[in-house]
Hints:
With 714 residues, this protein is mainly α. The chain has helices spanning 15-23, 29-57, 61-64, 70-99, 107-127, 131-134, 136-164, 169-195, 215-221, 231-236, 241-249, 266-283, 291-298, 300-331, 340-386, 390-395, 398-419, 421-440, 444-488, 490-496, 499-548, 555-596, 658-666; strands spanning 615-624, 635-643, 649-650, 677-680, 699-704, 707-712.
Amino acid sequence: MMNVCGTLICFKQDVVTCALKEMFNSASCINHLLVIGIAALIVIILALQLLIKIPKSRGSARQLVVLNSPLQLAGVVLNGCLGLFYLGLGLWMLGSNFNQDASVYLPHWWLVILSQGLSLILISFAFSIRARFLGTTFVRFWSVVLTVYAAFICCSSVVYMVTNKAINVKACLDILFLPGALLLLVYVIWHIRENGHEGTESALYKPLNTETVDDKADSESHVTPYAKAGFFSVMSFWWLNPLMKIGYEKPLEEKDMPHLGTADRAYNQYLMFLEKLNSKKQSQPHGTPSVFWTIISCHKSAILVSGFFALLKVLTLSSGPLLLRAFINFSLGKGSFKYEGFVLAAIMFFCKCFESLSQRQWYFLTRKLGLQVRSFLSAAIYKKQQKLSNSAKMIHSSGEIMNYVTVDAYRIGEFPYWFHQTWTTGVQLCLALVILYNAVGLAMIASLVVIVLTVLCNVPLAKLQHKFQSKLMEAQDVRLKAMSESLIHMKVLKLYAWETHFKKVIEGLREIEYKWLSAFQLRRAYNSFLFWSSPVLVSAATFLACYLLKIPLDASNVFTFVATLRLVQDPIRQIPDVIGVVIQAKVAFTRITQFLDAPELNGQVRKKYRVGTEYSIVINSCSFSWDENLSKPTLKNINLVVKDGEKVAVCGEVGSGKSTLLAAVLGEVPKTKDPCLWQNSICFSECMDPNRNCARQYSIWVFDGQAEIPRNTC
């Protein structure tokens, strides 16, 4: 049987079987003619469709071409580069024919390569255009066609390599053709299913009669792309590109910053924390739930994911010395197989890529988790401050509460970033010691002894740091309390010329705070010096042990030891920072827990507003007391009736109880006498939602001396 190229095939064989073998052999003429025909058909049909659809879109080149997904970028770049390689190879083969007297390559060889290169370049251009301009059906159809076409070419090249036991450049390019087509197919399935059918309601097709929308709808439409980002976008931080693009074009403004997603907002985080805390209180009726474990239960999934990335980073980092030792052994002629050098170089490249990726995700997830924890702790402190009882207010002043939000909540928010350092440091040290034992043998014991002695010497310093940190926070609370009281009563200080006296008092408090701060930082400096000098001691002790034990040192174990020394240095030098952060977070957790467990006002002290009642405020024969001593009430036998819409002024001498009466109306002073009829129909805002409106609004005015203090309860 003769083929169309004039060569004899299928001699004394079944024609159908032989023809199929020739069709799936990338070196045969029949396969080349089939591939050329398919490529020509793809180029003609695709070019005609692009010539019809692109002019109809009426978009500029910048609006048409966009790469908004890492999958799309990888697929377009890979297929475009393959197309350029195909074209270069085909032109080189064609040039070789012109430079030689006889044809080195038959026409079907360079024709098939040129046709594949041209089709790939055209397909890459088509998939770089926005999907809404070409249509969803167009993109899906051509992604499937490209995948089938690439699978046929890849299978043909595999058959050729297996049959002839040879590898050439065209076969390698044909095998890479299939991953490029699969990338575009996965992008089409993932992206179009996620975004749906993109209509023409975009910035390019805005109607002339634009309608105004409310602020909530505008806020929901301007949510950060991270809230809807896919897996590949999150892993590659592709969702940051729109904001980066705006920042490259012009300075960023407040309106350019997207809003947080629903799950990341402080209000939703606080509600989740409150729900977990209440469920733990119900499960532990006789105990107080731990705030720390409540935070862990709220964000256990994020903690586990970030912990996985932390472990992956440690493992990939620890693989470096092992790969380096294997590479040195291969360079010395101790390789296991022929292509071991290429395999080791590829593994080292992928390990470094995974190390960088896992480290970036670890840092990002823990920083995001820290901001979430800080936001709902600030909200919890704010809500708790509104419900504090009088006895609790005597313990927790306004300056201390301000310190809880600005200092303690901030330090707890920084703790998730260092949380995984507490266990990854030990894992990294253990792996480094195992690698050292593999490199220098029993000399590793000297390194272990130096590390253990360093940690043991740090124990008393860590206890002193914890003590000084607690004293520092107490001194800071006293100083902030004095400063806030001075600023609030500045009118009285100016009136009586007490500025110098209060200035000396505050300076004295600052001196006490400075004393504890200097003591804490001095111990921290000792700690840092101890750990920063330990890597030098580790290396010196290890080499001395190698000399004493007469362990031979060659290029393999010396370079491995030097590379492993970095694995030992980083965790040892981070131990002081980790200890300091853990101590600060422990003190902050203790202080915030004590504040959140403080006694609250009795919620049943007042009755809420009921529509239709004639009187707004009714107090009949009630006694109120600020102190816990019920035998000495502050207000005794109080009777007060305020009708709906009536304005009432409470007048009296200084210290007669005007402010106490107002606080009693608001429900902030416990009642001490039963039975007592007490009804308050004033609307109280007990939620963080500013859009919640009350049925009615009342104002109470208290005349305290010359000060007129409005108390708007709504």
